[in-house]
Amino acid sequence: MKFLTNEKLTIVGAAGMIGSNMVQTALTMGLTNDICLYDVFSPEGVAEEMRQSGFGDVKITATTDVKEAFTNAKYIISSGGAPRKAGMTREDLLKGNCEIAEGLGKNIKEYCPDVKHVVIIFNPADLTGLVTLLYSGLKPSQVTTLAALDSTRLQSALAKKFNVMQSEIEGCATYGGHGEQMALTEIIGTPEFTNEEWEQMKVDVTKGGAKIIELRGRSSFQSPAYLSVEMIRAVMGGEPFRFPVGTYVSNEKYNHIMMAMKTTLDTTGAHYEMPQGTAEENAKLDASYEHLCKMRDELVTLNIVPEISEWNKINPNL
Question: What is the separation of C-alpha 196 from the centre of its chain, rounded to a whole number of angstroms?
Fold first, then answer.
């Protein structure tokens, strides 16, 4: 098999359902011949099953030792947070998972400061990604978060509505915060698609994660696993990533925040441009930003991050 790279990919949280699916997806895509599975719970069972699947040209390492896992890693995907359970909001996960993100960032800085790219997918990803970036010392373009699910859910809903394949739905994307406060732009509309139907679809899309819990009895694991591996594939030089990603934004309008933007993701990392929408859509994006700022400021109150004015002392790139 020909691989995109022979550099080390570390998957954090590899013993879990999302992590184990990421491992299988990365191997199936042929991303690298050096993949490390890391978890505080032994991921050896996952590694052994991958070996038994016949992935014979790959060095598969499983470890619970953080130094072994991160040393020489050039790419990292982390799903290593607590899962969201029925009835919980992403904000419920804020403190515990952001403390995990702080530890992740510090481990990156200590063991693999030359890492090329890190993808964060554990919730609330807008905040865990921000905390990881701060404490890792990496450049903003090197840390991204999974923000594609809202776009794929919107695409799926429109495809079902019009009875077409998802690939036939073009020009739809979601920007802002991942979750209930997101902003929607570039929406398809037809005479048969009433305002009432559209309003209900927006509600359904933003509650897509809760719907999976209702239908399956557990949080999403296949979709975030697949999309996050697609993200790291793009950074490795593979196919371009098709959807928005969460990226660090600091400009005259939005600053010191991680949020979904109109992005390109390639070997040089993530690069964004401000989405252009209607006045109503821009207002929703502003509201999403304000919501994210409130959660970010709560991290200061919880002493997980210092005041923004001190961030540059921890990470000179910010």
Answer: 31
Q: Residue 244 and residue 258: Cα distance in Å, rounded? A: 12
State how far the Cα of 77 lies from the Cα of 145, in Å rounded to an integer: 10
Residue 161, φ and ψ in degrees, nearest 5: -60, -45
Supply the pTM of this predicted model. 0.88
- Given phi > 0 = left and psi -120 to 50 = alpha, else beta, which region is 179? left
Per-residue model confidence (pLDDT) at position 281 = 82
- 154-176: pLDDT as tens digits: 777 777 777 788 877 776 677 77
Rounded Cα–Cα distance for residues 3 and 28 (Å)? 10
